[in-house]
Amino acid sequence: MSEWLVLTLAMVAASAVVLTIAVLNNRRIKDDDDPSETPDVIEYMTMMIGVVYAIVLGLAIAGVWEGRSAAQEYVRQEAQALHEVNVRSAVYPAEVRTRIRADVDTYVRHVVHDEWRSMTEHGSLTDEGARLLGKVRTDVTGYRPRNDHEGQAYQPLVDQVAAADDARNARGQSAGATMPGVVWFGLITGALVTVGLIFTLQIRRTFRELLLAGLFSVLIAFLLFLIWDFDSPFGRGISATAAPFLDLLPGAAGG
Predict the structure, then answer these.
(1) Measured between alpha carbons, how far is 248 from 76 in angstroms, rounded to an integer?
(2) Helix locations, 89-206, DSSP H
(3) Is residue 115 part of a domain?
């Protein structure tokens, strides 16, 4: 199901439920009921709960956005390290340089076309990706420099492979959901309480009041959808992408 369809259905459902309850609740109110009799303490509590929940929503959105940004940064670091391996291997003999670059391209193609799907669907890396990166490491560390110039390039190459491996591990750790289940329980319960409290203010069936109630519920539904969408850095619509690999290693972009 499309992410936008999920969002649309969630907002429509939230608005429909709130408006239906408001209309049905209004039918139970007697003609002589005076909405100005709502105790001030209820208005104060409604306002405070709304403010507290808004802060919680803001913190949750900031947290999942930070997780998504960190995941994208891990991808960039990994791609940059592999790009450096490609570039710095130019000082090696042709057969060694060609082997290193071919193995780097093979690894990147696997990441972009296969491992990315595994992260999206299962939230984990693949054993094949680890094997291919291990092959790149063997290519680099297994070569014995023949002169000072190659010797000066050797350690930086080893360091870049280690940096790519470290970034890959960090990418794998950020592939799953970042929000614990207990936090989702609090967010959904808070949404129900916050929306439910607007009925204590004796909403009438005027167009203005129903419109505001509907827009308020739609806003809550949208913010919860935003948190859900960001919660899986590699798995949903607004997610980290493989663009750094394709930009820095265009030779490996093919299938």
Answers:
(1) 9
(2) 94-110, 116-122, 127-141, 148-173, 181-197
(3) yes
pLDDT in tens, 85-99: 999 999 999 999 999
Q: Which of 229, 125, 243 is nearest to 175 (CA)?
A: 125
How far from 189 is each of 8, 16, 89, CA to CA, in Å?
Answer: 21, 19, 56
Is 89:150 a contact under the CB 8 Å cutoff? no
Residues near 83 by beta carbon (within 8 Å), at least 6 away in sequence: 248, 249
The neighbour count for residue 86, using CB atoms within 10 Å, is: 19
- Separation between Cα atoms, residue 254 and residue 205, nearest integer Å: 60
Phi, psi at 45, each rounded to 5°: -65, -40
Among the listed residues 205, 196, 136, 129, the one whose alpha carbon sits nearest the alpha carbon of residue 168: 129
Q: How far is CA 59 from the centre of its chain?
A: 15
Please report whether residue 47 resides in a domain: yes
Query: Hey, what amino acid is at 117?
Result: R
Segment 62-113, tens digit of pLDDT: 988 898 889 999 999 999 999 999 999 999 999 999 999 999 999 999 999 8
Q: Please spell the DSSP secondary structure of 203-238, one letter per residue.
A: --S-HHHHHHHHHHHHHHHHHHHHHHHHTSTTTSSS
Cβ proximity of 108 and 223 under 8 Å: no
Q: Tell me whether residue 217 is in a domain.
A: yes
Query: Is 111 a member of any domain?
Result: yes
